[in-house]
Amino acid sequence: MTDGVKLHESWREPLAGEFAAPYMQALKGFLVAQKAEGKRIFPKGSEYFRALDLTPLDTVKVVILGQDPYHGLGQAHGLCFSVQPGVRTPPSLVNIYKELESDLGVKRPRHGFLEHWAAQGVLLLNSVLTVEMGQAASHQGKGWERFTDAVIRQVNGREEPVVFMLWGSYAQKKAAFVDSVDKGGRHLVLKAAHPSPLSAHNGFFGCRHFSRANAFLADHGRTPIDWTLPDV
């Protein structure tokens, strides 16, 4: 699965057992078969693990969990909620920007490209890392969830305190095992409604996760995240 795929070295050994496991071999076979049938798969193969390539394990400060990649042409590039430069900012990300502006006064960017966050230690991880064009949730239940559970366990096992931003019930259930401070652990788990237009008014707006994350990082001797996104 990692042949020809960019994946930061810091993740390779911790996840070696997952890549060698039968479920990952089956997942690889599924993706090969899908492509052989002429189906368009997003993101492109070299970007399946883009989140893990841009954010080394030992630099993770914040984890934001998504569900599936965007399934529209040219959108997905391996980071949850992020789209490539030149692509219209999706509604959920627009709402994330609104909350960021309300919380920290950060001016809303004119694009949806979040690699600047990833480079600072924000792991933008989808639960499922591939999707068929135009078919939302089409690759759920094929093995990716088990793999990304293993990624979260690796972050959870580190000594450095990390902030988990869990938006919506799906993310909250997936990361329910995280060793959170409210259970006597070391990681800060922040929960809110999903930023989707369908649910953002039910508790996402006003959650102040960005300022709370930075305050926690600063209190624990870690450099806060610069949430401002430069022009691209």
TrEMBL record:
It catalyses: Hydrolyzes single-stranded DNA or mismatched double-stranded DNA and polynucleotides, releasing free uracil. PROSITE patterns: U_DNA_GLYCOSYLASE. Keywords: Cytoplasm, DNA damage, DNA repair, Glycosidase, Hydrolase. The keyword Acetylation does not apply. GO terms for cellular component: cytoplasm. Transmembrane segments: none annotated. Pfam families: UDG. GO terms for biological process: base-excision repair, AP site formation via deaminated base removal. It is found in: Cytoplasm. Residues 53-217 form the Uracil-DNA glycosylase-like domain. It is an enzyme of class 3 (hydrolase). Its EC number is 3.2.2.27. The active site is at 68 (proton acceptor). GO terms for molecular function: uracil DNA N-glycosylase activity. Excises uracil residues from the DNA which can arise as a result of misincorporation of dUMP residues by DNA polymerase or due to deamination of cytosine. Belongs to the uracil-DNA glycosylase (UDG) superfamily. UNG family. HAMAP family: UDG (MF_00148). NCBIfam families: PRK05254.1-1 (NF003588), PRK05254.1-2 (NF003589), PRK05254.1-4 (NF003591), PRK05254.1-5 (NF003592), ung (TIGR00628). This is Uracil-DNA glycosylase. It comes from Allosphingosinicella flava.
